Structure formats: C-alpha cells, structure tokens
Amino acid sequence: MVPKIASMASTRPLCSIPSIFLSFSLLFVVSLLFFFSNSLLSNPNPRISHNTLQNGINVYVAELPRSLNYGLLDKYWSSSSPDSRIPSDPDHPTRKTHLPKPDKYPPYPENPLIKQYSAEYWIMGDLETSPEKRIGSFAKRVFSESDADVVFVPFFATLSAEMELGNGKGSFRKKNGNEDYQRQRQVLDFVKNTEAWKRSNGRDHVFVLTDPVAMWHVREEIALSILLVVDFGGWFRQDSKSSNGTSLPERIEHTQVSVIKDVIVPYTHLLPRLDLSRNQRRHSLLYFKGAKHRHRVTTLIRNSFLYLIHSIVLVSEFMAHEGGLIREKLWDLLVDEPGVVMEEGFPNATGREQSIRGMRNSEFCLHPAGDTPTSCRLFDAIQSLCIPVIVSDTIELPFEGMIDYSEFSVFISVSDALTPKWLANHLRRFSEREKETFRGRMAKVQTVFVYDNGQADGIGPIEPHGAVNHIWKKVQQKVPMVKEAVIRERRKPAGASVPLRCQCI
C-alpha cells in the first residue's frame, strides 16, 4: 500500500485546477478590500454616497410666481411696521434703521412667532440649490412633471398667514381685504389649471402648512394633497351629529388630514444645540417655560393671535381640553413642587437666555399641549439635551417609524399627570444612569430635527441626516399609496360616487 501511495504522490501535479481557482479568488477579494478601504479613507464623510442620487424622490417644483415665496420675504423686510402681537419685534425695531436691499433669496424672519414654522424656507432653499451642491439631498429636482414622483407647491403659506395676522387689522377671518386669502386663491387657481393637478386631482402635490392657520380658507380644496404639518391640532372637523358637545366621539366623521397620506414635520427649534461633551451637572428636576393659560387671551404673549385662533379654529372638544385646561391644572400642581421650575413667557429676544439656562440646568422638560398638541418647545428640549416629558394621550410626532421617541423621552398619560404628586415622584425614580442613557440617545438624533444649513439665504448643501431629508423620505413612503389612489380614481365609471372612508391604523 505504501508504494502505491508514493506513486500517486509522485505523479500528482504541483497545482490542481481547484487550487488555481481558489488562489485567483482570494487575490480578487483582497483587491476589492484594498480598493474600498482607499475609497473610504479618501471620503471624509462616507455616509454621503452616490447611491443617494439613485434612491431619492423625484420632485417637480410648480412654477408659481416669485411673489408667492421669496417675493413675500421682500415684502416682509421692506415693511416698517412691527408685528402687533409681540412687544419687541427683532425684525422691525421701533427705532428705524437702514434696511439693506433684499437679495434674490432674502433671509427668513427672526421673529419667533414666524421662525418656529420656517420649514417651508429650508425645503425650498434645498430645491433651489444648484445640482452640484445637492449630492446629499434626498429630493432630486426634475424639470418635467412627467418625471416627477410628487409636485412641490412653493408657496410660503405660513409667512403669508403670519404677515396677515401680524398687521393688527383683524382681517384674517374675512376674505375681503385679506391679502393672505388673495394669495391662497392665486396659488390654487394656478395649480388647479395645470395638467399635473388634473391627472391626480392634486393627490401628488405637496403643500407645507406648518402654521396651524396656513391656507385656512382653502383647506377643503387641498384635502387630498400631501400636507406637511406640525401636528393634527386644529384640523379635525367634528360632525355635530356624532357628539353631544361634551365629549369626544369615538369616531371622527370627517378629517382632512391622516397619517396615511400626510407627514408630521418638526417645528424649527429656537434654542442653540448643546453638545453632549459640554453637558454639565443639572440642578433642577423639571423645567417649563410658557403661558399658563392657552385657552384665554393673555397679555403676556401672542394675545391677538390667541384670540384669533380661538375664534376661527374649529377644533374638537378634546383639543380644547388638552390644550387649555390640562396645562393650567398641571401648572397649579407643579408650581410649588421642590425641584420644579415653572416660568411664564416665551423664548423670544428677551426670554431666550433664560430659556437656555432653564433647559440646560434641568434633567427633564415638561411638554404639555400649546396652541396645538406639539410646539417648538419639544425640539428646543432635544437640542438642550433636556429629557422631554410629553403629557398627551394622542400626540403625533415627526418621523415616527424612523425614530423611537421612547428611547429618549418620557410619555405620561393625562390621567397620571393630573394626579397630585404623581409626576414629580415618577421623575425622581429615574436613576442617574437611566438619565445619562436618555441624553446619550438624544444626542444621536439632535441633527434629525435641524433645518438650518448655516447659510443666511437658505441656499446651499443641507445636512444629509437633517430634517429636510427626513421629510422627503417620509413623503416617499406615501408615493405608492398616492399612485394607487390616482389609478383607482381613473378607472371609476363616470358619475360614480365613492364615499370617503375612515382609514385607521
């Protein structure tokens, strides 16, 4: 047997075919690894890849006249009248100063009542930026309606509404003499005459309506479109036959907004970002800065605005209860609680530094409902690494499905929050390690809620992991449903009527 084995060994080739194949395979893998390692080293930000260009959403920008977007900013900055709703308007000081001639892309207002709703400005600025600077943008601008997934309507609806509200003339509820209504009509008269609108009945059109009263007079006409809103407060229209007027009905009969087709977007934060590395020891348990009374006219802030909202917004009994009475009751329960700081005011020019100190010095920041279920206060808390305490049973939040808020926020039911001593005792039970974990997770998502690209005119590369890209990613999720609805509508027999259905998830 031994000689036989030796003979076989002596006649065996030095390199078999499988051995050669294996050698070449290993050489190929090593070459690939070397190539990709060099690519990663040469790319200072590997998160921005060319694959982004292939995975985005195609956006066509409707050709509205400039007077409905950047021209509105020209008009705003050329005005010499300060906002009648606040004691000190940072954009229109009482003492007249020389205002520079507006550029092609004027800056957005610093007035906090308007700035908190500035999503429309940053979304538009990204789309106006030259293609070579938009490598990190998820929205890919196309210049033919037929190539688009959605049509973006570039109307600064919030700025338009706020300019009308701030003029002090009380014309917002009326249509005659209301410049905001005239602009709303101009927008719809234009887009409804386009082939793109006629093909989809507006279903694939995107409107930015971050202000609770933006496009108030024409909302029914855009109810099928994709609406970018900060929450659904003020949108639900309750059928009077479904409720006795004392409680919220189990089913809302009609609504113009839905998590199925619309996108919840963040407010623009008004306070600067605190880096986790700069976080210091916090001495307060819980912090809140805002108005105690939200369902009444106050002289502290936004008095004219609040009266107007109270008069025109048709909200459910639930919204009025949560936005007003709950905040007032919470205030009374917490104002004398040790370690809790409750301050009247708003983070405007005079109260901004106070808000920064308060949020950065507190472990938790209280987030009850304001004029709407959410407010910029939540996003100021995140930027301040102050753990949000969200008191609501029904709140909708931006980018859910992409972000798990329970990883860095504390959610409290209304009934628990209104139980004496319960809330403060509950927060005291969190250990230092748990709070540090919350802040560490919060630090990882701070960028997600940032709109500002650092450019005064809003034009330039955006933060790839910021708010604008997250908004378009959420819009992209709606596109298949929109296309399905458009196709279903086309095959419907002429004259057929399909009832509106409640889509609940």
Overall description:
The chain has 505 residues and is of the alpha/beta class. Among the domains are: 57-230, no CATH class; 276-449, 3-Layer(aba) Sandwich (Rossmann fold). It contains 17 helices and eleven strands. It has helices at residues 2-11, 17-42, 51-54, 70-78, 112-115, 119-128, 157-166, 179-191, 195-200, 303-312, 317-334, 352-360, 376-383, 414-417, 422-428, 432-445, 467-490; strands at residues 57-61, 139-142, 150-152, 205-208, 226-229, 263-264, 284-289, 340-343, 362-367, 387-391, 410-412. The strands form two sheets. Strands 2-1-3-4-5-6 form a six-stranded parallel β-sheet. α7 packs antiparallel against α8 (179-191). Residues 1-15, 32-53, 237-254 and 295-321 have low confidence and may be disordered. This is Exostosin GT47 domain-containing protein. Residues 79-109 are annotated as: Disordered. It is found in: Golgi apparatus membrane. It is a single-pass type II membrane protein. InterPro entries: Exostosin, Exostosin_GT47.
Which key phrases capture this entry?
505 residues; alpha/beta; six-stranded parallel beta sheet; five-stranded parallel beta sheet; globular
Fold topology:
Elements: H1 2-11, H2 17-42, H3 51-54, E1 57-61, H4 70-78, H5 112-115, H6 119-128, E2 139-142, E3 150-152, H7 157-166, H8 179-191, H9 195-200, E4 205-208, E5 226-229, E6 263-264, E7 284-289, H10 303-312, H11 317-334, E8 340-343, H12 352-360, E9 362-367, H13 376-383, E10 387-391, E11 410-412, H14 414-417, H15 422-428, H16 432-445, H17 467-490
Parallel strand pairs: 1-2, 1-3, 3-4, 4-5, 5-6, 7-8, 7-9, 9-10, 10-11
Helix pairs in contact: 7-8
